[in-house]
Amino acid sequence: MHRNIFEEDHDIFRDSVAKFLQAEVTPHLERWLEAGIIDRELFLKAGDQGYCLMWADEAYGGMGVHDFRFEQILIEENALHGDAGFGLGLHSRLCGPYIGQLGNEEQKQRLLPGCISGETILGIAMTEPGAGSDVAGIRTHAQEQDDHWVLNGSKTYISNGINGDLFIVAARTVPDHPHGIGLFLVERGMDGFTRGRNLKKLGLKAQDTAELFFDNVQVPKANVLGDPRKGFYYLMQFLAEERLIVACGCVAAAEAALRMTLDYVRERRAFGRAIAEFQNTRFKLAEMRTRIDAAQVFIDRCVMDHNEGKLTAEVAAEAKLFASEVEALVTDECLQLHGGAGYMDEYPISRLYANARVSRIYAGSSEIMKEIIARSMGLDPRRGAA
Ligand SMILES: Cc1cc2nc3c(=O)[nH]c(=O)nc-3n(C[C@H](O)[C@H](O)[C@H](O)COP(=O)(O)OP(=O)(O)OC[C@H]3O[C@@H](n4cnc5c(N)ncnc54)[C@H](O)[C@@H]3O)c2cc1C
Question: pTM score, two decimals?
Answer without folding.
Answer: 0.96
